[in-house]
Model the fold of this input.
Amino acid sequence: MENSTSQSDSSNQPQFYKRKAFIYLSIACIALITTGIAAMFHKNYPGVKLKDLAAELINNDVPPGGNRAVLTTASGKTIVLNEAADGELGEESGLIFRKTGNGELMYEASIEATRNLNEDFHTITTPKGGTYQITLPDGSKVWLNAGSTLTFPLNLVHNKERRIEISGEAYLEVTRGAMHPFRVSTNHQLVKVLGTHFNINNYTDEHIAKTTLLEGSLKMRAFGKEATSSEDFILKAGQQGIIKGGSIDVVRADTAEVLAWKNGLFICNSEPLESIMKRISRWYDVDVLYQDIDNSKIFDVKVSRFEHVSKVLSLLEKAGGVHFKMEPGKIIVMK
Done:
């Protein structure tokens, strides 16, 4: 009898160890998947605490935007940059373009490779809830805010003028080049610079366009069918050119507020509710609906851009005179 029991125990041992190994393997796989999801989430939504995510999703809360953009090449190929692996993404007309590990697209080329480039263009578009940084072939840097588009020629370095097009909002640090002046065109203005730091806010759903100079000097001119003058206005550091109704006014700029988006903040000083909600709509990728509310009411807000939308809305509610109802994909603004 002892023999029989011993043999039975011995025959069950392999199955026991197999089950034990399967359990450990399952636990390891779950941990690996969880870690991968956490890493992807942290990369796209820096500053967001995962432990709060489940509860906030139940309440229709919305996480902040992150590094997201789409590149359209001269050949018509589209690359979703936030989904692409870091490293070299491709080469066109002697230009190598690569994605770095910190949400940046960089272009590199030799003088020989770019001397005979055709008029080919690349376009980078950030969706609602997206932002991205680009280093152009001439070394100039561009930061795109949410819902913006940048188009530039691949032979940027060797053109008589370096001309790019922007829609939405962008901050630029332009590499100085006296032989190749830098031009930025939008549907409302033409900006001319040699080497300087400035911010352009030119969303198509806004009735005004703003160009703010942080360093250096630049000329700007109203552009398009509404332009009332072809006169160039010179901006000095700390000034802002505002285009409204085809004319330009030059005022002193609140540079901290202008650059807040690039520095990870929402700063609204005496700003109408409608303007604030447009910013929220772009960054959190939500629609905004109004119900019997004066959307011209003025608010002051300062908060991290990496908070969930509920935090931003609660600060507005504390200021008084407005309440919000959150539904999937939308925010309803009420008295």
The radius of gyration is 26 Å. The chain has a mean pLDDT of 83. The chain has three domains: 2-44, 66-257, 264-334.
